[in-house]
């Protein structure tokens, strides 16, 4: 059977298949997952009482969370078609809409990613002095001075410090929600069978946490911290691979529309780039490099870390674009 | 009250009068359309059969577009009509992704636009523009909850189907076989 659109309807991004979400959305999902990963590690290692052994993970890494989230939000707003009405997003909270509760989660996580580093400002100052970055200590010292001078910011920071354990638990929960949300945002769309599978939430969370560990691995100057993150990242990659195989198995066992969706990656147009570039160069190669590093081979840590980060971004680009191609067949 | 449409595919000739009527009635920007004609060709030459469907928003009973809207701009109005409040829409595209029928699009002004069942005409007791211009009278509009309405009677008498029922959206536009 041949299906044709008989009337002129060349609306941009609608035919031959929906194609309205491009790079900004993929990048936003990547940055959201990355920020979630960084904050999850900070909260976990703080709760484990490892803030001294893992200074970068607990104190320095979270400094990057806010700029990462802000860049993601900028891309998201840039992608809106009715930009001036963006405030409408915060006039209501709709539990049914992942985009709505995701936006609120992002607000909560942003507040935490300001308060968390502020509560560690003394240690960050010490860290910077130790490394001789005297120009940057001006900022931290100005913040410390400001905090001592004004009663309200001082009170807020002292309150946060006093109940940091409680706030770490809240941060951990909300970061996990943020990580899962980047996947659920897509899986909520029943019209696109590739996205519409429940494994996407955990898969995106795992991938996001993996990019978070890669980020710490890349920028930390503490050898032990880097090795630990390498080891954690290896298990995350293994889980991610398991989820990916599981996802395609589930689809292949599903209805026709789901089989077609999986076929995009199993013989279809995305096969080479998904398995060759993403799985090969973005998961298996860094896994091997990390394994070699743990065995004592000298490998620059930046290499596996950057491969993981690039792979994470590519994975989201592929899922977003392939998802929009996958749809239900229409037959009279 | 539950508005619905019944379309006799045996009568439809694919003239696209409904498409033009809608564009004119609703000031749809040039190049855009809220309804459209799908053509299905079946069989091998010389045994070919041609099948037309005039398609638009199905004003579903179970609306994925309304569910995924983050601001509540997409909503179900009286009579089950699915509408978009323009100045609440942020143009994120979630509803466009959620619709299995591709019935929604970004208006050049930024907000999402779609079929409204011509609710401004319904207020005056008229049929939607597409229904009232159809030269073969293949389209019927009415209240599906009223067993005496044209649409209810046709659905009772004739075999019918909806588009992509497996998406679980419970479309309110029915096609007669």
How would you characterize this protein structure?
The complex is a heterodimer of chains A (332) and B (177). Chain A contains 13 helices and 1 strand. Chain A has 332 residues and is an all-alpha fold. Chain A has one domain (23-325): Formate dehydrogenase/DMSO reductase domain (Formate dehydrogenase/DMSO reductase fold). Chain A is globular. The mean pLDDT of chain A is 93. By secondary structure, chain B is of the alpha+beta class. Chain B has one domain (3-176): Alpha-Beta Plaits (2-Layer Sandwich). In chain B, 20% of the residues lie in helices and 27% in strands. Chain B contains 6 helices and 10 strands. The longest helix of chain B is centred in the N-terminal third of the chain and has 9 residues, at 17-25. The two termini of chain B are 25 Å apart. The chains are: A mainly alpha (332), B alpha+beta (177).
Head-to-tail CA distance between termini of chain B:
25 Å
Give the tally of β-strands of chain B.
10
Largest sheet of chain A: none
Uncertain spans of chain B: none
Q: What secondary-structure arrangement, pairings included, does this model have?
A:
The complex is a heterodimer of chains A (332) and B (177).
Chain A: E1 2-5, H1 23-47, H2 55-60, H3 65-79, H4 98-119, H5 121-131, H6 134-149, H7 151-162, H8 164-187, H9 200-219, H10 223-252, H11 256-263, H12 271-294, H13 302-325
Helix pairs in contact in A: 1-3, 1-8, 1-9, 1-13, 3-4, 4-7, 4-8, 5-6, 6-7, 8-9, 9-10, 9-13, 10-12, 12-13
Chain B: E1 3-8, H1 17-25, E2 36-44, E3 47-55, H2 64-68, E4 74-77, E5 81-84, H3 94-98, E6 105-106, E7 112-113, H4 119-122, H5 129-133, E8 139-143, H6 150-157, E9 160-161, E10 173-176
Parallel strand pairs in B: 1-10
Antiparallel strand pairs in B: 1-8, 2-3, 4-5, 6-7, 9-10
